[in-house]
Amino acid sequence: MSDTPKIVRPPHHLVDGIRAMGAATASATLAHMGLRGAAITGPVAWTKGSAVAGPALTLQFMPKREDLYGEGEYMDVEKQLHRHVLYHVEPGDIVVVDARGDMRSGVFGEMMMTYFKGQGGAGMVIDGCLRDWPNIAKLGVPLWIRGVTPNFHTQIDLMPFAVNGPIACGGVTVMPGDIVVADDDGAVVVPAALAEACIAKAKKDHEWEDFSREMLARGGDLRRYYPLSDAARSEYEAWKAKRAGHDPSR
Amino acid sequence: MSDTPKIVRPPHHLVDGIRAMGAATASATLAHMGLRGAAITGPVAWTKGSAVAGPALTLQFMPKREDLYGEGEYMDVEKQLHRHVLYHVEPGDIVVVDARGDMRSGVFGEMMMTYFKGQGGAGMVIDGCLRDWPNIAKLGVPLWIRGVTPNFHTQIDLMPFAVNGPIACGGVTVMPGDIVVADDDGAVVVPAALAEACIAKAKKDHEWEDFSREMLARGGDLRRYYPLSDAARSEYEAWKAKRAGHDPSR
Amino acid sequence: MSDTPKIVRPPHHLVDGIRAMGAATASATLAHMGLRGAAITGPVAWTKGSAVAGPALTLQFMPKREDLYGEGEYMDVEKQLHRHVLYHVEPGDIVVVDARGDMRSGVFGEMMMTYFKGQGGAGMVIDGCLRDWPNIAKLGVPLWIRGVTPNFHTQIDLMPFAVNGPIACGGVTVMPGDIVVADDDGAVVVPAALAEACIAKAKKDHEWEDFSREMLARGGDLRRYYPLSDAARSEYEAWKAKRAGHDPSR
Amino acid sequence: MSDTPKIVRPPHHLVDGIRAMGAATASATLAHMGLRGAAITGPVAWTKGSAVAGPALTLQFMPKREDLYGEGEYMDVEKQLHRHVLYHVEPGDIVVVDARGDMRSGVFGEMMMTYFKGQGGAGMVIDGCLRDWPNIAKLGVPLWIRGVTPNFHTQIDLMPFAVNGPIACGGVTVMPGDIVVADDDGAVVVPAALAEACIAKAKKDHEWEDFSREMLARGGDLRRYYPLSDAARSEYEAWKAKRAGHDPSR
Amino acid sequence: MSDTPKIVRPPHHLVDGIRAMGAATASATLAHMGLRGAAITGPVAWTKGSAVAGPALTLQFMPKREDLYGEGEYMDVEKQLHRHVLYHVEPGDIVVVDARGDMRSGVFGEMMMTYFKGQGGAGMVIDGCLRDWPNIAKLGVPLWIRGVTPNFHTQIDLMPFAVNGPIACGGVTVMPGDIVVADDDGAVVVPAALAEACIAKAKKDHEWEDFSREMLARGGDLRRYYPLSDAARSEYEAWKAKRAGHDPSR
Amino acid sequence: MSDTPKIVRPPHHLVDGIRAMGAATASATLAHMGLRGAAITGPVAWTKGSAVAGPALTLQFMPKREDLYGEGEYMDVEKQLHRHVLYHVEPGDIVVVDARGDMRSGVFGEMMMTYFKGQGGAGMVIDGCLRDWPNIAKLGVPLWIRGVTPNFHTQIDLMPFAVNGPIACGGVTVMPGDIVVADDDGAVVVPAALAEACIAKAKKDHEWEDFSREMLARGGDLRRYYPLSDAARSEYEAWKAKRAGHDPSR
How far apart are CA B159 and CA B177, in angstroms? Predict the structure, then answer.
């Protein structure tokens, strides 16, 4: 059990491209590509303002069975699988945990989270809870979770069961090595094999969006400015030219 | 479908009177008037510290049916009814949305919300979610919602269905033109026809409340000061006289 | 009904000892002592950063029955039992309320909470909601609740029923006089009779934890430093000696 | 703990009168008397076709606390409070149990239920489950429960806590000695003090209902026959006279 | 309010064709046609063995508001909209009710259901409950409901609001005049405009299914017989020929 | 994917021994052995009166991801993993399915179930639904499920993902080859390695239970007869002797 599989990380430029999109654009683009349910539901942004993307290391909990997870695990800490997922952490990685939505199990505490941060972990997405929040809060690790609890991970109903296998998290199947992108909207799973196409599809020209936003903020007509109508295109061109004239880089 | 009905707005002094009461007083007063369930349950104050009141524009979502809401809606944006409710927005209006409590549908995103703000909208109450929260947060629009999601409005299970008709939002029937009052306690629906009576009923003399609060804060006896007992009335009169003496406006 | 029982408060040193542990250590230690479900689930830290411990005064709500809780209670405020639990408050006490998880009943409002603070109450844990949050927020009373609502306590489905009897709160049986410890992780019930043993058990030597945390934060190996391995013990001793050398109190 | 209080049983004619009304008429009549929530929600008719009424013996479960309910209870069976409620059973009694809606605790098994039947118990209403259903089914005891489970009563999260005190069952407060009436529509709690008035109120003349039912079944107009319109009254009188003529008892 | 709209009924041959398919085939066929969520979830077959299809008459409930549904409705029964949907019933019709999943409101009782049967109604689908089940059961009307209750329709939280408008029932949008097909699998909504295509699509050759079922029942290989493999086709042809030989109608 | 692992079946005498205990005794005995949560919660006895035990074949569903489960699966039926679990069925086997509690996915239909019966399958436990119930009902296969639906297995949110691996079903971890015992109380998972000890532990002398049941049924004292008291032992011995005297086999 203690020799858990490694993951294959996607190329950095794909992770960077997905991070630049943000969760909302990633989810919508995947939906238009035929993958309608890529957004994790349940875990929410717990550290407001964070925005990360990275490859998924996965940890799976299962309902506790005393014959499968007994006293031995407490004796020999190396048998505790929730430790093992952390051994795999490289800078930029995101740990994704299926804790079955349980509100009475704190998957990690302060010491484990300190180690995770020390290894350069980018963030965690947990379909469940953390523990030791008064201390974890100080670490500043980006987190998407359901909540916090004083209980430890195996105190009530769960046991850690597998590392870097497929899991379900918040209603989404996550494969190890998938790219997870998360911000205040929530977390989205981008299959590694679709990342390139997803980035390409989202790069459609939205250059007029800054213009439209400015017009709408001034009380402009939604029908005229969003999406940009033909009637407003010359107005937009003028705006763009003017802005270019003010561009100090010219 | 695209010619949606207008609402009849209640007079400004009624909206102002309800706003001055706040959500808690409005809900309690309506309860004492025989309308016990005027408080919307589910959507919560998302922008803490906001306090608004205004006439309700309504938007109803229904379970998606591909035969009723198809590709055409994506082609012709003017067929998208969630846009139409925004066309009605006048300064001070509140958009109330029945999104069926769905946590996987983001009713509006940044551009729509920018337009809403540009039109002077006072706030939104949504039995469901928004999308693009990292950007919407910057707009400072007062919001009472269930949460946020990366998904767009018709990505999973819903379709916009009607504008400015009766809706149910958080367990309360809302008629277009009703006055919605919302603050950190939540949102309350005041039927336009009851607003005048509701304001009058709440205007019962609570002048001793400032005195009582001060006494309770100092450790005064609850039985003596809340509600104000006969035994404490002369003490209160003295306090009032003294405060009047210190009044710089005299 | 209006002559409600007093509670027996545990000795101050026990309350202090439990407070020093915090909720997470209390919950885990009780679990290792055989009491696996001491953490209240549902009510969450509403006033982030608060950390309190104190003896429990209890208030129980029951489903409203008009024949048991009628107009009389509104006439004669002294018959309203939610007032009576506050009459018992001494400095440091914690009021724990079984409001049945109801999201449509605001157990206390601003005036009652002002009185509670005036009496020196340490905090409240409510399996339900408060009302008047825009005003209560200013009082700074530490709170663990499910939410807030504009409704008052008996507006919809509940009636106050008993004071200082046994209650269930968030899935935990609470006996009056138990020690409640609460922080951002949530609230935990420590039976008064187990407090001494719980404190003793938690006082096991964790002196190396500061060292381990520092090492983990620097990217140290989890296997080496948590728990402290034999291989790292001499390193730890050196660290301790060095820190002692820098101790300005020497 | 083992000396549990007796209940005061209402007079037989009241129990008989309520039984004759049935659950639906009892609930509606109480609602019209101002007691709108007398129907227990959650427990359903498990033994279809049963119809009973009788005084309520009550049993309350609470979340298990190992310090309050320990090994001793298993050693000394007389400490197990769920036995004690059965000691009170007299012919016609109904045992009502607050098992907190728990689906993993079987309140009674075959032997206890055999004893209950042997004592003449009229039925049970349990906000929770039974155990040993393959055997209990053969006893034919009328039951309103949430379900069945292989688990025994204290196997997971609950402990029996009190006998013949006030309880909440399926969202209704039940006082010991209240009259419970139950049939395939569910169970309704009639406060003993309201039984007489409830019976009287329901005895309003519905003699035309048999006539109306017959007319509606033949396709008669709802507006004409339900409630009986003035236009149909002479038709009804004729029907009544004719039926009287056929009455073999005349 | 009391002059409610009529529906347009689909041609009989379409209703007959959909009825012959049954709920499972209708749901799957619509899914393959792009309408993936046509099955109503929540209401279940209450009268086991029934199988019906017919045009939908619709009734919508909304959260009760005392200012919109007051004493007048009790005085003047003709203002009670749940009666009006029944006035429209023609033989073969199915009444579909959005009762908001409420478990404390009994939409119809015995007298209304007797009238419905007298008019030739084919069945009802209710996202909520009925009342008077001990008597309704005897009528034998096919029913898909969530449960039964002793409460009447407006006793707690609902009021009837509209007749023969669009409703949501069990997560499906139902338009008046849609064809509802229901059996022990549940109820499915077939949009009237898709019925013809749905029937045609389902009529694809399944003649080998009887053969395959017989083979599988005897322990035949799933790979060989379902779907019918090329390898088994000659075996099937022989089986068909033999059966034809035994056909007494030849 | 299509070459799924076989299971190791426990010896027949263990399966027989567990079957003889029934679900309630198995669950209680395992609890007393330290395995407190062996009873599956959610799926209920759908075919009342069935009682089975057998080794578990397992099938796991996961949230649907269009990139992992695409059109190919519909084209090549051999890629559909829910078929593969059936290929493993030997007489007496029980198929256990984690369908994630989904109420909109029918795991198997009539043809698959016919094949299962043809192979001698003993029963199925599904944390989810079946489809084609009007036809499956006629097969008489013992079933423990959450419900039925007209939808097929991948119609909405799920895809079959793995066969004969560990699964969670109704809150219990099930390992392939575990013994599942199920009757009207529900289904219980007996780990194969604990079966022998479980049977031995349950074989404690309960010979007096028939006597006690008879006494309790006649109105005997619970304290005297259950458990059998010392005071009643001689009475029991007499009963036993008398019964032996009547034994026609002597």
Answer: 23
Cα–Cα distance measured from residue F238 to residue A121, given in angstroms and rounded to the nearest whole number: 75
DSSP label at C204?
Answer: S
Q: Find, among B121, B11, B110, the residue nearest to B59 by Cα.
A: B121
pLDDT the model gives residue A75: 65
Q: Which of F62, F64, F171 shows the shortest C-beta gap to A166?
A: F62
What's residue A247's pLDDT? 56
Task: Give the residue ranges of chain F where pLDDT is below 50.
Answer: 1, 250
Please tell me the distance from the alpha carbon of residue B99 to that of residue B107, in angstroms, as a whole number.
7
State the Cα–Cα distance between residues E133 and E131, nearest whole angstrom.
5
- Cβ burial of F139 (10 Å; 0-12, 13-18, 19+) is middle
Do the two chains A and E touch, given a threshold of 8 Å on CB pairs and at least 3 pairs? no
Q: Which helix (H) or strand (E) holds A144?
A: strand A143-145
Pick from F78, F137, F150: which is nearest to E39 by CB?
Answer: F150
Report the relative pairing of strands F158-163 and F52-63 from DSSP bridges: antiparallel
- HSE, CB side, 13 Å, CA atoms: give it for residue C178: 27
Distance between CA atoms of residues F243 and A25, nearest Å:
80
**F217 vs D114, D152, D155: nearest CB:** D114
pLDDT tens readout for residues C56-114: 999 999 999 999 986 566 667 778 899 999 999 999 999 999 999 999 999 999 999 99
Interfacial residues of A (vs C; Cβ cutoff 8 Å) = 77-78, 83, 86-87, 103-104, 106, 109-112, 114-115, 117-120, 131-134, 137, 147-152, 155-156
Q: Which has more pLDDT, D245 or D44? A: D44
Residue in chain A closest to F162 (alpha carbons) equals A166
What three-state secondary structure class fits D238? helix
Average pLDDT over residues B137-162: 97
What are the structure tokens assigned to A192, written together?
């590694």
From chain C, pick out residues whose CB is under 8 angstroms from the CB of B222.
83, 86-87, 112, 115
> Most F CBs within 10 Å: which of D83, D102, D114, as the mutation test of the F interface?
D114
CB-based contact E124:E141 (threshold 8 Å): yes
Q: Does the beta-carbon distance from A173 to F68 stay under 8 Å?
A: yes
Answer yes or no: is the ipTM higher than 0.90: yes
How far CA A233 is from CA of A202, A221, A230, A236, in Å, comes to 22, 14, 5, 5
Would you call A191 and F62 a contact, using CB atoms and an 8 Å cutoff? no
CB contact under 8 A, F106 and E24: yes
Query: Model confidence at E78, in pLDDT bands (50, 70, 90)?
Result: confident
How many Å apart are CA C12 and CA A76, to the nearest integer? 38
CB contact under 8 A, F147 and E28: no
List, for chain A, all residue ranges whose pLDDT scores fall below the cut of 50. 1, 250
One-letter amino acid identity for F46? W
pLDDT at C203: 81
Give the closest-approach CA distance of C171 to chain D in angstroms: 6
Question: Do B and C count as touching (3 or more CB pairs closer than 8 A)?
Answer: yes
Over range C124-136, report the average pLDDT: 97
Model confidence over B175-218: pLDDT tens digits? 999 999 999 999 999 999 999 999 999 887 567 888 999 999 99
Report DSSP letters for D58-78, one per residue: EEEEEE--TTTS-HHHHH-GG
Pairwise CA distance, residues C249 & F140, whole Å: 82
CA distance D94 to chain F (A): 16
Q: How far is B35 from chain E (nearest CA, A)?
A: 6
Question: Which amino acid is it at B229?
Answer: S
